[in-house]
User: Fold this.
Amino acid sequence: MSISGDFLRSDFNQLGPLIELDAQAFPFPWSAQQWEELNPDHHLLFCWQDRNRANGLALFGRIGRDSVAHLLKICLEPAFQGKGGSTEFWIFVVKQLVDLEVKSIFLEVEELNHRAIGFYRKVGFRTLRLSKNFYSNGSNALIMELTL
Ligand SMILES: CC(C)(COP(=O)(O)OP(=O)(O)OC[C@H]1O[C@@H](n2cnc3c(N)ncnc32)[C@H](O)[C@@H]1OP(=O)(O)O)[C@@H](O)C(=O)NCCC(=O)NCCS
Assistant:
């Protein structure tokens, strides 16, 4: 599958395609209200957009100009998963974060989400620890970190 479309930083004004993508990629997507409560002062949002569709998104929390960013959500449209686009998108995202003087990223990932863990390891994240009963359904999370 060829990689078409644009990688860009979102200004939070066109959330519709991202809400749709979230619903396609996750069994428990956020509500429209949760999306609308995102605040450009505390969040960074990047997307892979193709015309009016969103093929991918990466959402980070960041307090002020803190050097640490928290990866809250990353996903690709299911047809694009496992096809190499995530790595290109990730390279774009990291470049943007470096330009914004972010020095490290941390994240939590469900310990059975092997594909996501495989992706994070591939792009350089290391596991810091296992957090038991992290999610509301009782499942465990790996806490991972990447130094930029
Ligand atoms: C997470 C996500 C963005 C990664 O993008 P992707 O294009 O699917 O990832 P890639 O295929 O580039 O990388 C996944 C790696 O894990 C490996 N992998 C896949 N399934 C695996 C499994 N069951 N066990 C171990 N490794 C696995 C792949 O082989 C691949 O490594 P490789 O390219 O060296 O072969 C994408 O899968 C996605 O949107 N998932 C749904 C949303 C999600 O779970 N997001 C993360 C939590 S917020």
